[in-house]
Amino acid sequence: MLAAALGFLSLGPVNAEAVAERPAQAKVVVIPIRDQIAAPVLYIIRRGLKEAIEQEVDTVVFDMETPGGQVDVTFDILKAIEKFPGRTVTYVNREAISAGAFISAGTDEIYFAPGAVIGAAAPVMAGGAEIGETMKEKYVSYLRARMRAISEGKGYRGEVISAMIDLDSELKIGDEVIKEKGELLSLTAQEAMRAYGDPPQPLLGSGIAANLDELLDQLHGSGNYTMEMLEVTWSEKVAQYLTAITPVLMGIGLLALFIEFKTPGFGIFGISGIVLLGIVFLGQYVAGLSGHEPILFFMLGVALIGIELFFFPGIFVLALTGVVLMFGSLVWSMTDLWPGEPIPVSGDIFLRPVASVMIGVALAMVMFAAILRFLPRGGLWGSMVLDAVVGGEPVPARALAGGGTTQPGAASLIGESGTAATALFPSGQVEIGGRRYEARLAVGFAEKGTLVKVTGLSEFGLAVEVLS
């Protein structure tokens, strides 16, 4: 019995050693590529690759089923794929036409479903029309060079993709002509796997798999991997399309916040501005172009501007710093930065975000000027510019600067006392002599009914202080 017990105990170190030597399971992420290759697909791929880098994923599989799409977006996708340090695999689930063939060529390996097709990658206009002959030659020459560059060391891949691009090229290996001039090359899974040359090697494919599970078994062995499918929800798709109108959303959001600062209390304009700018951040985050840091810097900028307005008006340093942080965070949120890589010195990466922010600011200024110029007085707008009165005719803020035939000028109001007709945060309305005027506190805020005194005149109304 003792011997048996000792024998049992002796198995412990052997099992521990076997467990220690067992290889860790490979991490695999599957990124779906569906429909037309356009900006939303790019955003999905970028997000998936960045998450894969952060999670130290070993293999990324692109589950491909696309009829093609935009060439510029395709090149951005190829650049993103190059940044992933691990193994990249395309699984042509059904078809990889045109831009889909380009993306496939940029991965380490290409696998096919049994009935899959790849090819027909000639450049055409966005609407499907033919490009002019001279311009087409330039595009074809450039595309072939790009495909050769990304296909170096990958067998016949560069020649095959070039034959899919150029109608007038011939694809010939040894004595066998695979594609004659005058047609574009397209391949079935079986044709892509056919071996040519000496020594024989497949024309384009690395293998055929009936489904993703079979593919991963071929790549890593059965049970030697964990797979995560990148999920793309309907809400993410909506958010991705919103990025196309980012400048408009940003402009309206900034305009709403500006109006909110010029009106008493906090209402619909402040909420609308925050929501619209929140959509800007959300759209970029879903697209995989930013993390949470830009939002934190944006909120810090808002806080600094609030401190300036409510507690230390006239200093300008806090407000200026806040504005810089806000606009800087908007640019940051739309900049394509990758985990573990230094921020590039080149200004190209910031060009589009800066342009979007500047367009948004310009739109906000134009819309505000239009509101001041064209909207009628009274009604909702009248309440925003604070020209309502109590017991008399309206006194618009602009009438104070030059006086008027029936209204008191600014000089006669300086030194006068009144009460806060609305809360002053720091702007609002004050009542003096039975009339309401737009007013602004120099420091702090005041509740409705607080006694105030006119100390001067600002561009938007009276400057007042609280009477102690």
Number of helices: 17
What would you call the shape?
Answer: elongated
Top-tier CATH class of the largest domain: Alpha Beta
CATH superfamily of the largest domain: 2-enoyl-CoA Hydratase, Chain A, domain 1
- The CATH architecture name of the largest domain reads Alpha-Beta Complex
Sheet of most strands: 8 strands, mixed
Residue fraction in strands: 15-25%
Specify the oligomeric state.
single chain
Brief rundown of the structure:
This protein has 468 residues and is α/β, with parallel strands linked by helices. The protein has three domains: 25-229, 2-enoyl-CoA Hydratase, Chain A, domain 1; 234-374, no CATH class; 386-466, Nucleic acid-binding proteins (OB fold (Dihydrolipoamide Acetyltransferase, E2P)), CATH 2.40.50. It has 17 helices and 17 strands.
What does this structure look like?
- The radius of gyration is 33 Å and the shape is elongated.
- The longest helix has 27 residues, at 348-374.
- The strands form 4 sheets. Strands 1, 2, 3, 4, 5, 8, 11 and 12 form an 8-stranded mixed sheet that branches. A 5-stranded mixed barrel has the order 13-14-15-17-16.
- Strand 14 (427-432) and strand 15 (435-441) form a beta hairpin.
- The N and C termini lie far apart (97 Å).
- 36% of the residues are buried.
- Helix 5 runs antiparallel to helix 6.
- The protein is α/β, with parallel strands linked by helices and 468 residues long.
- It is 47% helix and 19% strand.
- It has 3 domains: 25-229, 2-enoyl-CoA Hydratase, Chain A, domain 1 (Alpha-Beta Complex), CATH 3.90.226.10; 234-374, no CATH class; 386-466, Beta Barrel (OB fold (Dihydrolipoamide Acetyltransferase, E2P)).
